């Protein structure tokens, strides 16, 4: 047997989560967002479980080409468009829909030699000030795009900075309405948070990412606890060593944890080189032999340590869930001051992955 760490992916949960999105946004088509190697799950492993989607959205040309080579014939949206004009022949060859967020991209489109026009997502800066045209420029950009023979259907696209808050899209919606005035085009505005919580922003296409993988757009599991979403990724390992500490004994690098009294601890085959966050604090939740306990001491490259006080029956070989159905990835992330997105995207290539 090899090192006991393993990630397993519940493909049925992925299918189910896409259904949850469809029920939440019944009148919209769905771009399933599979950027960052499907949020760390592995695009090649998961895309066919999302085969009921209307399209896939991502950033990397390599990932888009992989989907075409695997036989996906439906729409593919490149969320940040082409990064250089010399990518356009590949957008043409593989029939990719491109976002357009900067002036130079119009010139590149106008000057390219394409076999057929490309559909374009005209990106509006909703106030997030990442990519996109300010509202007052959108009408003119739309007219310029319409005049380019290489441009097919134009969709208005925007992204929300605060859709996880109840009033979080109000200001952005004002800007988007201002930008869209007098433009007869489909719209795609909603990420996961808006798809779940802001029906007024659904329009023609929603673009869920994180909810497909069963984690919360707000970073708080309680916000999706009743949504029916199911975690897709489980990260498991085992106890490979046990120590009994005496009062005053310390654990791990920097001796961050010090035992108050006698205490049994377990050493788990999982470290930051597997993608577990190094800055996880004492008490970050973990499941050992079916019992909820906490990690203690600084996470090492290949190991971390857990308190066995609540589970005296546990010992070498006991199963450990780092995150999954019982220990929500959102709860681990929240303990570590981050969001589930970062943890799943950081799953290290050395962790073997199985699907079920
Ligand atoms: C990542 C991304 C999404 C999906 O965001 P989630 O919060 O994961 O749903 C949607 N649209 C764009 C432009 C993105 O970059």
TrEMBL record:
Ranges where the Alanine racemase C-terminal domain occurs: 232-356
Enzyme Commission number: 5.1.1.1
Pfam families listed in its UniProt record: Ala_racemase_C, Ala_racemase_N
Record field: transmembrane: none
Cofactors, names only: pyridoxal 5'-phosphate
Binding sites annotated in the UniProt record for substrate: 130, 301
GO molecular function annotations of the record: alanine racemase activity; protein homodimerization activity; pyridoxal phosphate binding
GO CC annotations on file: cytosol
Key words of the record: Isomerase, Pyridoxal phosphate
Catalytic activity: L-alanine = D-alanine
Domain of life: Bacteria
Modified residues (N6-(pyridoxal phosphate)lysine): 35
GO biological process, one term: D-alanine biosynthetic process
CDD domains on file: PLPDE_III_AR_proteobact
Active-site residues, record numbering mapped to chain: 35, 253
Pathway assigned to this chain's UniProt record: Amino-acid biosynthesis; D-alanine biosynthesis; D-alanine from L-alanine: step 1/1
Membership in a protein family: Belongs to the alanine racemase family.
Biological role: Catalyzes the interconversion of L-alanine and D-alanine. May also act on other amino acids. Isomerizes L-alanine to D-alanine which is then oxidized to pyruvate by DadA.
PANTHER family, alphabetized: ALANINE RACEMASE, ALANINE RACEMASE, CATABOLIC-RELATED
Protein's name in the database: Alanine racemase
Gene (UniProt): dadX
